[in-house]
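Open question from group meeting: does this chain pack into something compact, or does most of it stay loose? Before anyone orders reagents, we agreed to write out a predicted structure and look at it together. Recording both the input and the output here so the notebook holds the full record.
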Amino acid sequence: KRLSRAPVQPNALPPELNLGGARRALVIAPHPDDETLGCGGTLARLAPACDVHVLLVTNGDGGGDLPPETSALRKQEMAAAVRTLGIANEVLHLDEPDGRFDDTSSFRQALAAIVQRLQPDWVFLPWLGDSHPDHSRISRASSQVLRRSGVERVLYYETWNPVPATHVVDITSVLEAKRAAVLCHATALTYSNYLEAMLGLNAYRALYLPPGERRW
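Structure tokens returned:
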């Protein structure tokens, strides 16, 4: 479920992503739940041997149309989800406005400072072509910051739109952890059935893996 570069051969099925090269990873999540829905299984596989950090860009308040305590509640749910995936580091926050993200110099400077401090070799972020305005704007702004950072590998994950995948990850061994992490995001689940949508997309992507027992 990744987009990093074009396949070597036209129309070839995407190969499995080799996770062994990651030493420190940064995950850029526009909203609480994007980290889990988009690449939670990959993060759960990386966590035992890789220093994983998660950055929440917006405040998660639903654009201000939800109850006043929504932001704090969703941040708590995200912290629980991240722990469920096996990530020990606390979630980082930028508190940009939810639903109204604007690509500003202050955002780019804040992100550049985080990247400079953490020195990740892999960074995960939403696909550039995602239909959610926050996702696509954050992805484009972040991508431009990362081009100047020396990060070894930038990988785009899918949430609202399936990506033209160039790599897949077998998450069979951590599927239950990802399922449990999705369930931590109880507020989001009251509005949409993200759990079944995620499971369906993951099962579809598993068709790209070599034949064998049921895989995700």
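Observations to bring back to the group:
Residues 63 and 98 are 5 Å apart (CA to CA).
Strands lie at 24-29, 51-58, 92-96, 122-126, 153-157.
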